[in-house]
Amino acid sequence: KTMMEESKLTNYQQRVLRTQMREGSSLPTRVNPHHSKDGPSSIQKKKSQTPPRPSRLKSQQTIQLEIDNDTSEPYRPPVSSYNSEKEKERLNKILVYGTDKPLPKPKVTSVVAKPPKDRLMRSKMKLMSVENFLLKWSD
Question: What is the 3-state secondary structure (H, E, C) of 7-75?
């Protein structure tokens, strides 16, 4: 059984081998993979008969009738006012700004500059803080 499972035998081949083993006769040297010798079984499935679909194609007569009965105006494309200078400017803006509309200008904010402290005063303050720290730790 395990040999049959491990080998790649079709269900039909496995069934033939099982029946031969049950009957006690010798195993065949060759078993066709299908019922008949010349290939797959000749059993054909019955095709379900569906009613024919209506064709989606229109006949020439119906198209001609639709054209004759059509009373709408023929299509006319809208009049375009193409200005090459404006188009050139728009393309130039795209090259410069990355878009055809210029980027908004940044808002100007006034920066209040603090007067710089005297460097000498700053160094004196640092020395005083270091002296205070040393005095605390020395006590």
Answer: CCCCHHHHHHHHHHHHHCCCCCCCCCCCCECCECCCCCCCCCCCCCCCCCCCCHHHHHHHHHHCCCCCC
pLDDT of residue 81: 79
pLDDT tens track for 52-80: 777 788 889 999 998 888 888 888 888 87
- Per the prediction, the chain carries an average pLDDT of 80
How far apart (Å, rounded) are the C-alpha atoms in residues 26 and 43?
Answer: 29
Instruction: Say if residues 38 and 32 touch (Cβ distance below 8 Å).
Output: no
Check: CB of residue 100 under 8 Å from CB of residue 94.
Answer: yes
83 secondary structure, DSSP code: -
CA-based torsion, 83, 88, 93, 98: positive or negative: positive
HSE of 62, CA atoms in CB hemisphere, 13 A: 4
Q: Rounded to an integer, what distance in angstroms lies between the CA atom of residue 10 and that of residue 13?
A: 5
| Separation of CA 78 from chain center | 37
Taking CA 39 as the corner, what is the angle to CA 37 and CA 45, rounded to the nearest 5 degrees? 120
